[in-house]
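Task 17 of the worksheet. Students: predict the tertiary structure of the chain below and write it out as structure tokens. Keep your answer in the requested format; marks are given for formatting as well as content.
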Amino acid sequence: MNILIVEDEQLAQERLQLLISAYDPSIHVAGCLESVKETVNWLNSKPHPDLILLDIHLSDGESFEIFKRTQTQKPIIFITAYENYAVDAFKLFSIDYILKPVTAEALAAALNKYKRLTDIFVPKDYRLLLEQVKDNSSGNYRNRFLAKVGQRLFFISASEVAYFAADNKIVYLIDREGNRFVINTTMEKLENELNPRDFFRLSRKIIIHAGVIAQVKPHHNNRLKLQLKGLAAADEMIISRERVAEFKQWADA
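Model answer:
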């Protein structure tokens, strides 16, 4: 956290720095200023701090003038020897109003208040949250399958799958080399378990992996036909007319 101190008394500046350091040594004091003019110039030329500790009576006038000449909207802890400015102070971005002499307890309470308000009002990084959601979601999809040929069992990862095909209530997994395995599931269950970014259900009988599609060709009755990469599929890769629009949207995502 970066704090700007605006206080025209040297001893008061030094005391505030000591109290801040005692409260949290990691807090950085970005500057110590003494006047309205100096503060206006500072705020108009440098990155604004997270928080401002601001005396009201400065060497060249009242600090309220600062906000008429800058665009800062950072939270403020006002520090003053006078009670009668509280209403004016809270018309700005004030989170606390401390009377001099400043005690460690009063400053700590104000800084704690700032932290609580920050936790409530600072926007979350939704891009990060979105990535976390994607990561969590992808972890819920099937990433491997126990497949069978005769009495032999094989572990096959989702990335090795070319497509799934259903025939007489039996579901087959066909890998990228054209090998055909039996898996114990249904097409409906598979459709819900597979990552929709990678897999698309072409028809009642076929679910295909995007990575094996080489070409899409027009087919009669407004359907589409797929040509696979390096794989002579035993099953016809036809997209029904009803699913063409959905397929195009999926393919272009």
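Marker's comment: The CA atoms of residues 165 and 186 lie 10 Å apart. The chain has seven helices and 17 strands.
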